[in-house]
Amino acid sequence: MFAARTISVSINRPLNEVYDFAHVPDNFLKWASGLAATLRKVGDNWIADTPDGKAEVRFSQPNAYGVLDHWVAFADRAEIYIPLRVIANDDGSEVSLTIFRLPEMDDARFERDAGMVEKDLAKLKAILEAN
């Protein structure tokens, strides 16, 4: 098992509004800078230019459960699974993302990734609460 950390943010918007925005792959670049600098659809695939190079990204299918999981596949290593959830919190929402410390990650890299997730979730919150 990998060490894991779940990072979350409270967003003062209903679950359906948060999910409707966050599940659209085209919207990821508006808030998830830790994922990629670019994200484009090529045929049936999403291709990203990430901090670690070019990758194929798969997104969970739209669903009624708040699941926004995605998978990032690089040509030279195992696919990375990124669990992401939106859950209702009274009239608002909680968004949580779990990162795993993979074998090739040292402490500094794991902390850097956690910092990027915190920044990305704060950006998502700012976008959604500004509307």
Can you name the CATH architecture? 2-Layer Sandwich
Could you name the CATH topology?
Alpha-D-Glucose-1,6-Bisphosphate, Chain A, domain 4
Net shape? globular
User: In order across it, which strands form the biggest sheet?
Assistant: 2-3-4-5-6
Question: How confident is the prediction overall: mean pLDDT?
Answer: 92
Unreliable segments of 5+ consecutive residues: none
- List the domain count as a whole number: 1
Give a quick account of the main beta sheet: strands, pairing sense, barrel closure. 5 strands, antiparallel
CATH class call: Alpha Beta
**What is the N-to-C succession of helices and strands?**
EHHEEEEEEEH
Annotation field: number of helices: 3
Q: What this model shows, in words?
A:
The protein has 131 residues and is of the alpha+beta class. The protein has three helices and eight strands. The strands form two sheets. Strands 2-3-4-5-6 form a five-stranded antiparallel beta sheet, covered by helices on one side. A hairpin with a 2-residue loop joins strand 3 and strand 4 (53-59). The termini are far apart.
